[in-house]
Model the fold of this input.
Amino acid sequence: MSSPRPESQPAQQQTPPGTLGEMDPKPDHGEETYRGSGRLAGKKAVITGGDSGIGRAVAIAFAREGADVLISYLSEHEDAQDTARYVEQAGQKCVLVPGDLADRAHAKTIIPKAVEEFGRVDVLVNNAAFQMSHDSLDEISDAEWDHTVATNLSAMFTLTKDVLPHMGPGGSIINSSSVNSDNPSPNLIAYAMTKAGIANFTASLAQMLAEKGIRANSVAPGPIWTPLIPATMPEDKVESFGQQVPMGRPGQPAELAPVYVLLASDESSYVSGARIAVTGGKPIL
Done:
């Protein structure tokens, strides 16, 4: 893991969904630091939102641990192709599938494409998310609310339902929740609501799938420096982003990847229904 990391960032804004090229400083996805040891050798994984941020860090780590990866992403083609390059440099296959997961018709193409390319899916990481910061409920349009729910919750449901016929015992479903599920920000009300839903969905799913030998867990990140932040928050909040947690800084995507690797690996064979906080010291309840 690279060190030291910047504890603050200059005020900046992007147009959603945001790209890595415009970020200052550039996030650390483990490109130069992650070292694999075969913990996912032979596994086939699907990662949504895998072009940048947490998804990119997870894709790089999975590949270096020996997994082939399908990356679903919205429209950030340059970032996605760069992520694919790291996967392929690790000697693994990478399949890129662009499109909006808020469109259920598109979401339903992801698992069939993975099965076509890989024959099965061993690990599903539901990570893609949408958020916008608002000071009042009046600022949230019906369309934005529906889009947030469709991206963060409905796509997770669709991909999970679709993957089960193609996932055998030992399979792992990992859903990205958030510290906002337990400590909701008033400015991220729609996003926080969906992240609480993800946590509950995963807890129920783990109990439902236990008899099939399939595990389901969630990860609850705190403030992580990704393109989503300058693309969805006011400049002043971007500048102070991460300073509110005990560690006093935003986390880097690379700091999340080892948790996803653990949950994807057979080493966590008795871990299901868990929720792992990666929050810079801020507890989840």
Summary: The longest strand covers residues 215-221. The chain is about 35% helix and 15% strand.
